[in-house]
Amino acid sequence: MRNALFLAAALLLAPGFFSSAMAAFNLCNKTKADVRVALGRFDGKAWTSEGWWNVRPAQCATPLNGPLQARFYYFYATDGAGTWEGKTNFCVAPAKRFNAETRADCARRGFDRRGFLEVDTGRNADWTQTLSN
User: Domain ranges in the chain?
Assistant: First the structure.
């Protein structure tokens, strides 16, 4: 019993235990409408975009679990009446769940092209992006 308590205490006090266990890219919806979100990123080799996550009012979604590997991430969100969009283009599927490799030739591959907002996470292992009116 004493050894088990010692081991549990050692794990909890180990450097990075909480940060790696809790690290993620989170999107929180502070609006009064459901929001659909797509996420884009560069992993050092290739650009990808994926979605859709439906985030209900006053709820959060976690598109990426684990420590963030890049400084910049990109997102596009819509509540049907308005959008959170930017200047970095990625491919998205109009209505269904998708995972699009590369940012090129969206229409030829059956995707729409949307401008995503850039998020500078500052190389943090964890990030929460809030969507509000």
Answer: 24-131
